[in-house]
Amino acid sequence: MLFAVNLMNLTTNTHIWQALHSSLDGSKNMKMINKVLQTDSMSKERCSICSIEDTKKSDTLNLQEAMCNSNLNPSQETAVWSCITARECRHQESVNLIWGPPGTGKTKTVGCLLFALWKMKCCTLTCAPTNNAVLEVSKRFVSLVTGLLEYDTYGLGDIVC
């Protein structure tokens, strides 16, 4: 008779569970989970009140200048502004997916998005499928941040990679 046992580390799963259930009012987290899973058929609609143009007009942090300096193509720039608009919207929660075939600039786009969110003082959690992908996004983001800092590395302490 043969017995097989599959051993696994529960630490990662425990951390994920705690992150999803971190607040006493779990309804906000559950709304976001439902949004990601699209359990509501109406959740695919964008907010009709907020628009990218309005976000660009009210840009107090001069993000447009940062976008111009990052050499994004129009599609990438639209993706970043769409995410920023969704983040600024107070009418509904949303989830944006940046996707495309290899070599289309997803990493560059995400790095620029993280930079824009950093300028907005927005705490952001970013995930990637591999350690190499995490390192590449981190490199792009940190290079944008260090290009902006007055004093070499002062301010990098707010970034955890």
TrEMBL record:
Q: What GO MF annotations does this protein's record show?
A: helicase activity; hydrolase activity
Q: Which Pfam families match?
A: AAA_11
Enzyme's top EC category: hydrolase
InterPro entries xrefs: DNA2/NAM7-like, DNA2/NAM7_AAA_11, P-loop_NTPase
UniProt keywords, alphabetically: Hydrolase
Domain (DNA2/NAM7 helicase helicase) ranges: 71-143
UniProt-listed Enzyme Commission number(s): 3.6.4.-
Q: What is this protein called?
A: Hydrolase
Species whose genome carries this gene: Helianthus annuus (Common sunflower)
